[in-house]
């Protein structure tokens, strides 16, 4: 095992406990930065290309140059993962617009971005497969949730409200349509068909979402990306949440009411099996 808390900050590997940034960092002052969370199975980053593509899109959307090449990122991830003992980990990376000398809203003329990577243990395969409870709440966030921005105050408040209500996650809606979870993508199953909201600027293009849709396609499970209304969610046969750290998890209750018969459904069980096989294949070094 390596040091369990090694991180990368601006070109150097160091102990997380001794990593320091300036209070003038624009990530700290304004939330002016973007991030990614990448699961590593058996030390192998899962869907690395897709995560780097989404990172590039987030950076382009906030007019920040990508500080590293794909190869550069890959090397940093390998180093951080190895230093933290390899195996199953969740890599977190963040890029901010750096720390200029003065706090002004407009972009600084010149400042080096702050680049930070850390990792933490990833929950075991199927750790959330027994099911989660959700609340249904109005989506209070801004109109560019397709950017994976570090400014997550609404997500934090919505998640905390869900926890205070005895649930695990908040499912969000805007103008009568489901958008996504506070930190997850939403799926439902109705009459044997899988559905998830189509991508638009009001939600994050989840990488796990992409994987689930690919698995559905490969295994002949019908699916559609389409608007999902509130009533449809409440009366669905199955509801799932997905994310890099949760994989895919069934929602058993929404605001206390059971989803379907209140236990993980058969379509979820099939998807969970396909996902676990993919995870195991990745850990063995073959990324199908
Ligand atoms: C708001 C939001 N939507 C969706 C997701 C799922 O994205 P991914 O599957 O890439 O983890 C996340 C992940 O954290 C998220 O924060």
Q: Which percent range describes the beta-strand content? A: 25-35%
Order of helices and strands: EEHEEHHEEEHEEEEHEHEEEH
DSSP E strands, number: 15
Tally the structural domains. 2
What ligands does this structure carry? pyridoxal-5'-phosphate
- How many helix segments? 7
Alpha-beta content class:
alpha+beta
- The end-to-end span amounts to 28 Å
Largest sheet: 9 strands, mixed
CATH architecture of the largest domain: Alpha-Beta Barrel
CATH top-level class of the largest domain: Alpha Beta
Oligomer: single chain
* Unreliable stretches: none
Helix content: 25-40%
CATH superfamily descriptor of the largest domain: D-amino Acid Aminotransferase, subunit A, domain 2
Shape: globular
Molecular structure report:
With 288 residues, the protein is α+β, with helices and mostly antiparallel strands. The chain has two domains: 6-121, D-amino Acid Aminotransferase, Chain A, domain 1 (2-Layer Sandwich); 132-283, D-amino Acid Aminotransferase, Chain A, domain 2 (Alpha-Beta Barrel), CATH 3.20.10.10. The protein has seven helices and 15 strands. The protein has helices at 26-30, 48-61, 70-83, 153-164, 207-218, 230-234, 266-283; strands spanning 6-9, 12-15, 33-41, 44-45, 89-96, 114-121, 132-138, 169-174, 177-181, 185-190, 193-196, 223-225, 238-243, 247-254, 257-258. The strands form two sheets. Strands 7, 8, 9, 10, 11, 12, 13, 14 and 15 form a nine-stranded mixed beta sheet that branches. Strands 2-1-6-5-3-4 form a six-stranded antiparallel beta sheet. Strand 1 (6-9) and strand 2 (12-15) form a beta hairpin. The longest helix is centred in the C-terminal third of the chain and has 18 residues, at 266-283. It is globular. The two termini are 28 Å apart. The mean pLDDT is 95. The structure holds pyridoxal-5'-phosphate. Residues 37, 180, 183-185, 204, 206-209, 242-244 line the site of pyridoxal-5'-phosphate.
């Amino acid at each position: 095992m390596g040091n369990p808390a090694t991180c990368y900050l601006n070109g150097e590997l160091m102990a997380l406990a001794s990593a320091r940034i300036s209070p003038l960092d624009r990530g700290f002052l304004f939330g002016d930065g973007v991030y990614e969370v990448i699961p590593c199975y058996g030390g192998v980053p899962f869907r690395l290309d897709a995560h780097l593509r989404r990172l590039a899109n987030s950076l382009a959307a906030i007019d920040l140059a990508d500080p590293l090449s794909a190869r550069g990122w890959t090397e940093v991830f390998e180093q951080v993962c190895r230093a933290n003992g390899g195996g199953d980990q969740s890599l977190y990376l963040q890029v901010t617009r750096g720390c200029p000398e003065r706090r002004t809203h407009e972009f600084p003329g010149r400042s080096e971005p702050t680049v930070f990577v850390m990792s933490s243990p990833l929950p075991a395969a199927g750790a959330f497969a027994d099911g989660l409870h959700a609340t249904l709440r109005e989506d209070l966030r801004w109109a560019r949730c397709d950017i994976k921005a570090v400014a997550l105050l609404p997500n934090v408040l919505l998640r905390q409200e869900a926890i205070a209500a005895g649930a695990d996650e908040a499912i969000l809606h805007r103008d009568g349509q489901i958008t996504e979870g506070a930190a997850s993508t939403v799926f439902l199953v109705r009459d044997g068909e899988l559905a998830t909201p189509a991508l638009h600027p009001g939600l994050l293009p989840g990488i796990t979402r992409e994987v689930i849709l690919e698995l559905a396609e490969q295994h002949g499970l019908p699916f559609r990306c389409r608007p999902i209304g509130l009533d449809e969610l409440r009366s669905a046969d199955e509801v799932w949440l997905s994310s890099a750290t949760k994989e895919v998890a069934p929602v058993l209750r929404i605001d206390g009411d059971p989803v379907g018969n209140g236990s993980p459904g058969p379509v979820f069980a099939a998807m969970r099996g396909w996902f676990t096989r993919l995870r195991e294949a990745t850990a063995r070094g073959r990324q199908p």
